[in-house]
Amino acid sequence: MPGKLRSIAVVVSDINQEYQSSVLSGAKHYAAEHGIRLCHFSDMAAVANSPAHDIGEYNIYRLIRFELFDGLLFLSNTVPSPEVRQNLMNAAREAGIPVVVLDDKQLGASSVCIDNYGAMRQIAEHITDVHGCRRIFYLSGPAANPESAERLRAVQDVLAERGLSLPPEMIWMGHFHREDGAEVAHALLKASREQNQPLPDALICANDIMAITAMNTLTENGVRIPEDIRVTGFDHSAEGRNFDPELTSVERPLFAAGERAMEILCSEGASDGVSVMMQTSPFFAASCGCTGTSADPLTQFKRERFRQLEQITADTHLCSRLSCSFAECETPEQMMDVLEQALPEISCDGFYFCLNSDWAGDPDTLVTIEEAAPHEEFRTEGFPETIHLLLCRENGERRPSCDFPSAELLPALSAPDAQGDSFYFFPLHFRSRSFGYCVLRNGTAALQSTSLFSFMMTLSNALEHVRKVRCTNAVVERLEELYILDALTGIFNRNGFARETRVPYQLAIEQKRPVMVMFADLDGLKYINDHFGHSGGDSALRAIGQVLRDVCTHGEIFARFGGDEFLIFSAGATEAEGDALSAAILQALHEYNERVQQPFLVSASIGYHIEVPLPHTSVFQMVAAADAQMYEEKKKRTTSKYLRKY
User: Fold this and answer.
1) Could you tell me whether strands 350-356 and 386-394 are parallel, antiparallel, or unpaired per DSSP bridges?
2) Less packed terminus of the chain by CB within 10 Å, N or C?
């Protein structure tokens, strides 16, 4: 009985195209009257003609938990991939929910179909029998599309029955897109001009969009329609009705088909393989040489065309503004502040920006110790257990952000007021990398916006920009560490020592305060390396580094100067403090030896120099003095080889 179902999933590709939006408007009308919640999941895989992009688009279907729904309305003929179509059908069957499919009997479910074969037969019969066309060129939709296959078969059958042929070179396999019509028109023009082939008697197109673009391209190149070539479409769209010449086409009851599909889903026999065939009406107009009568009144046409142009202009400006503003963002939170300001321009009651918890990858593995390069490990299939609802705007107000399980799809779905509402889920991704998804609630943006794809790509590309900024910052930070830190001990190297002491040393000059530079040399490093291997020497050097971390706790700057030599800098230190620090270092080394019990002792010779630095002098001149003091104690060799460059 009507009203039995409370929540159904809708799967559709290219949701804002005229066929899809017309069918879904009928489904939405029925659902609103019966308090049924609709959740639409939509991809735009065929738009970019990119396999990686398609992976990212199709991933939105992995979000669906069919067990949460009471049924599935499946516009399978719009989904380009046969594999994706079958996987979705299998998942719905496994969940045990009823399915109604639009215009596709091949999936073995209940179906509501338009008589594509019969309708295209009438068009082909009219072209051959009424207008006497014999040389036909056919512009088809995708071969894997059931509707497309039926329309092509109808034309082939009609021609064969009349002793005519439709050879492969007279068939162009398109994608139901505008550019297909332009490509066919240019191909026909090229054959006419370069190969001296006459234009076909007629160009039969599998939909209106391709037919209109083909006619426009032909007329721009001096071809007269229908005098030089007759053209037909299939859809009886508003654009075709109001084109000049008016387009011969097929009128389909799409709104009624959407309503009928919902009625079947809500019936007791929804899972019993119900099959409904809805009839079509051919419309013969000027593009084939007949007289049309269905054009909209001129005033209505002008107003609708102006509304469309205004909407396209507004959508284009919105995407342009967002792109410019997003370029300045370095975090998703900054993006949300920008996006929130633009949402009043989008026709919907609610907008939800859902971000994968792992959208940017693991920050701990962006850069490794061994190499300063980003890792390209990222999610391409499914969604993580946790989703960040980064932006939630409902009825003009921003709600708090939160985390929720991806299995719930969206927290708003469980709200009492969600019955009778329509939700539209769209993927966020860059190529095959999944970022999350956006959800629109009610409104006309999802079904009518001509720039929906551009808007979603703007959001996705902005996220990729933020991700790359994040990754670049991580690489820069790591490179900076490599520049100023000693890889073995983890303390500053000479570069780090020079950078960190620059400001306090200059301040000491200006304030005429004393500065202490202490020099520590690891004793017997060559002996340790020769007798215990370089691993033993590395262990001794790391021990010195750790001792300096433990002892230098009063703002001292310390570094491995090179080889077996270490530096300590302290502004304002006294002789007593220098002696105390030297003693503390030696005591810490003694305790280390007692604790670790290695086959060698870690010891150091230490010397320091204190003076008030003079203007235009370098801290490394004081280092040289400290080095000399240390070697007075050590009496082993001359000035450090690392100081000769200063």
Assistant:
1) antiparallel
2) N
CA distance 301 to 297: 6
Q: Which of 362-376, 430-444, 485-499, 538-552 is least confident?
A: 362-376
Instruction: Output the six-digit token pair for 98.
Output: 């009823």
Q: Please count the other Cβ atoms lying within 10 Å of the Cβ belonging to residue 618.
A: 13
425-437 tens-digit pLDDT: 999 999 999 999 9
Residues whose CB falls within 8 Å of the CB of residue 461, separated by 6 or more in sequence, listed in order: 323, 326, 430
Structure tokens at 70: 């009471």
Question: CB of 558 within 8 A of CB of 568?
Answer: yes
Whether omega for the bond prior to residue 416 falls within 30 degrees of 0, making it cis, is: no
User: What contacts 631, CB < 8 A, 6 or more positions away?
Assistant: 605, 607, 637, 638, 639
387 pLDDT more than 90:
yes
Task: Tell me how far apart the alpha carbons of residues 331 and 408 are, in angstroms, rounded to a whole number.
Answer: 26
616-634 pLDDT per residue, tens = 888 888 888 888 887 776 7
What is the structure's pLDDT at 191?
Answer: 94
Show the beta-strand stretches assigned E in 180-303: 202-205, 230-232, 249-251, 275-278, 281-283
DSSP code per residue over 315-375: HHHHHHHHHHHHTT--SHHHHHHHHHHHGGGS--SEEEEEEETTTT--GGGSS-SS-----
Decide if 63 contacts 438 (C-beta within 8 A).
no
How many CA atoms lie less than 13 Å away from 495 in the CB half-sphere?
Answer: 9
Q: Quick one: tokens of 247?
A: 């387009």
